[in-house]
Design brief:
Helix content is about 60%, strand content about 0%. The chain is mainly α and about 300 residues long. Helix 1 (about 5-10) packs across helix 10 (about 210-225) and helix 4 runs antiparallel to helix 5 (about 125-140). The protein is elongated, with a radius of gyration of 19 Å.
């Protein structure tokens, strides 16, 4: 029997990562890691299902900003497109270079700041990412993606209350943005408030019944509450919806152990260890696996 305390020590692995353009919505960690943002998680610092998870792309809705006559808007857009291409290939340093050229030419280019913040976030430069979000919000206060990105960066910097406020602003601007609810749920997990986490992600699930990260956060929260059958149902559904989220095997192992399903707990811990060689919870998983195998 492993016990609920393990959930409390390792929760918050599902936040979404920051968005990369103006309405673009992968828990360390939802961002939250990724669990998403984002994340990429009190423990004492949130981790994101860590799965920061990959978010869908949508068309920018930023308020158009006037470009000074002397600037070459077409050239700025060319650099912006090159930055997007580099970011999509995971070449974030190159992306930062291209987005920087774009905003140098056009200092009012909101989406370039938002995308550069995403690239800075990806390389761990959270202060610089936060500054870009602040600039984007200064230029376009109602840009929900900028607030969502700022929440992700505040989360990584340990500014959890500020991140909650950022996500609350996102909900005001775009009530259907599911990752605002999911990331708030992830933060509540890190605060040891699973009931609040469930309340948040239930709203995300109502909006999108296929939101895998929402089920992951709710599964972890139910585990913290000792509601293991419900936790198992949520975690299994999250994995079905997102089979590549191998971090879920860890929580499935914990859940099965608490339900007395030793064989299934062992199988899930083994899958977790096989697919997550660098996970911070790996030593814990190894220890519990040894305990289960010794029963």
């Amino acid at each position: 029997f492993i016990g609920i305390s393990i959930f409390m020590l390792t929760a918050c692995s599902t936040s979404a990562p920051p968005v990369t353009q103006a309405v673009e919505l992968d828990t360390s960690h939802a961002t939250v890691a990724l669990p998403t943002v984002v994340p990429e998680t009190v423990t004492p610092k949130p981790t994101s299902t860590s799965a920061p998870t990959t978010l869908p792309t949508s068309i920018s809705t930023a308020t158009p900003q006037p470009v000074p006559p002397e600037t070459n808007a077409s050239e700025a857009m060319d650099y912006y497109i090159l930055g997007r291409m580099a970011a999509e290939e995971g070449e974030y340093e190159l992306a930062i270079e291209k987005f920087s050229l774009a905003v140098e030419i056009d200092p009012l280019f909101v989406d370039a700041y938002i995308n550069r913040s995403h690239a800075y976030n990806a390389v761990g430069e959270y202060d610089l990412a936060l500054a870009d979000c602040d600039r984007a919000i200064e230029l376009d206060p109602e840009n929900s993606a900028a607030h969502l990105n700022r929440g992700a960066n505040n989360f990584h910097l340990g500014n959890y209350e500020a991140a909650l406020e950022d996500y609350a602003n996102v909900i005001v601007l775009d009530p259907n943005e599911i990752y605002a609810y999911i990331n708030r749920g992830d933060i509540f997990l890190s605060f040891g408030q699973p009931e609040n986490a469930v309340e948040e992600v239930n709203q995300a699930i109502e909006i999108d019944p296929l939101a895998s990260d929402a089920y992951a956060v709710r599964g972890i929260a139910n585990g913290m509450l000792g509601q293991y059958p419900e936790a198992l149902a949520d975690l299994e559904l999250a994995l079905e919806l997102q089979p590549t989220n191998s971090s879920l095997y860890y929580f499935l192992g914990l859940t099965h152990a608490n339900l007395g399903n030793s064989e299934r707990a062992i199988a899930n811990f083994e899958l977790f260890l096989e697919t997550n060689p660098d996970a911070p919870t790996r030593p814990t998983a190894e220890r519990y696996l040894e305990e289960l195998q010794g029963e």
